[in-house]
Amino acid sequence: xxxxxxxxxxxxxxxxxxxxxxxxxxxxxxxxxxxxxxxxxxxxxxxxxxxxxxxxxxxxxxxxxxxxxxxxxxxxxxxxxxxxxxxxxxxxxxxxxxxxxxxxxxxxxxxxxxxxxxxxxxxxxxxxxxxxxxxxxxxxxxxxxxxxxxxxxxxxxxxxxxxxxxxxxxxxxxxxxxxxxxxxxxxxxxxxxxxxxxxxxxxxxxxxxxxxxxxxxxxxxxxxxxxxxxxxxxxxxxxxxxxxxxxxxxxxxxxxxxxxxxxxxxxxxxxxxxxxxxxxxxxxxxxxxxxxx
Amino acid sequence: xxxxxxxxxxxxxxxxxxxxxxxxxxxxxxxxxxxxxxxxxxxxxxxxxxxxxxxxxxxxxxxxxxxxxxxxxxxxxxxxxxxxxxxxxxxxxxxxxxxxxxxxxxxxxxxxxxxxxxxxxxxxxxxxxxxxxxxxxxxxxxxxxxxxxxxxxxxxxxxxxxxxxxxxxxxxxxxxxxxxxxxxxxxxxxxxxxxxxxxxxxxxxxxxxxxxxxxxxxxxxxxxxxxxxxxxxxxxxxxxxxxxxxxxxxxxxxxxxxxxxxxxxxxxxxxxxxxxxxxxxxxxxxxxxxxxxx
Lengths: 293, 294
Prior knowledge:
The structure holds two protein chains of two kinds. The model of chain A has no long low-confidence stretch (mean pLDDT 86). Chain A is globular. Chain A has helices spanning 2-32, 39-57, 61-90, 94-116, 142-164, 166-176, 178-183, 188-213, 224-234, 239-259, 265-279, and strands spanning 131-134, 138-141. Chain A has a domain at 20-222. Chain A is built from eleven helices and two strands. By secondary structure, chain A is mainly α. Helix content of chain B is 72%, strand content 0%. Chains A and B meet through α3, α4, α9 and α11 of A and α4, α10 and α12 of B.
């Protein structure tokens, strides 16, 4: 019983980190309707900036975290400006954007292979990992609680931003139809930049927690596959779907690791994906996709 | 025949081309974007190696069974998943490719897990690779220019219109996936017989990305473009081996640049044809070169 509770807390904590990544990815998908495979790149940009701020500059975690978020956000805007904007202005075939994002993800990963080397780096122990007793029924680490809390804070901020601000309204309008939003006087290019900045910031937060949980290495971005899968399980383009999908995935992974075998955890993730697609192809919260003739 | 190194490159070229033709059929001619086809190469490689080493099959039978095994799995996987369109299938294909790799990595008793299978007899000699390539290229040529090819292209260009015209698009999409998996399976089986060692990590997502990137680079919907793309990428990979650190960086940048400046790839939907080359040298640009051909 105690193990079960412990694994549930761990699963929620891991799931909430996935949620940070999946929400940013889903946000971009809802506006531009393509899978941004470079999203994992924003995550490692955030991770490496945080690492070097802590190690070389000697900053504290707050400063390093802020720098990582701004850095990843700005790189996300730059990625969009350099690689996606010329394509989306020329054509509306989203396949080209998808392939370009694949290219960008290879570029970002290998920039870090060259600059930082391919080796695994451990983040300095800035996030406490001391054991915590939860209401006397389960023991878990401070790290898991902190990542859960951080994710909840950031996701709430995003929710407030989307529902209470003018740009949030514009983003929600653009999720219905980007072109019509443009006709209504929304500056589309600025809107896309804002969306990418938000996605980059959230990915950086996820990146910091993932590199503290595992280690930091250029291929860490591949872990975004799980966030993509979470987004698909929840329904592509739906933000609540991305959060719920991520939590399901995190729970499934941790419960498998805890009770069956930790080698099976990735397999269970893919199995969940396939089962979801069989039963409900548009995901839990996805709109039924009707293609226009 | 030409000395070991050149022989090796030609064999590798044939192996890569066979896999690329498979992906080209699915992505270029049927319009289904995949990021998991390395999984089918892995299936072909493992099925044939295990049959040869553990069951003592003749290599030719094993290679064909490797391709057939990949085809059967793809067929089973395709029936449910190909109902998905666009990005949904792309994500699902990543999942499928990774799932195949993970199964191979964890089925220790059969596959030796991530340690890989060493000591596979070397059966992919130069003539074997070239003959396999020629036979499969010819088959692909007739396939895409025939009745099935037209059905594939119709479900790519507008699957609603195609199904209104009476094409069973769901059936053709699954068929296209199965044939492309067969090509990748054969390619993987030949790779096993060339390297004499296989390991699950050889067939990871990067390999899948590479397969699709080569097809995009050559031109979606062009068989000759696929072959030209594969040749260029394989040779460039060999040339850049000394600066392998920068190889992947350049590779990623090239993909982005192609998408920005020439998203249709080197050949677009054109095939290498004497008339196309003549058109290139004609000054008259008012006539679109083979414009009506789809």
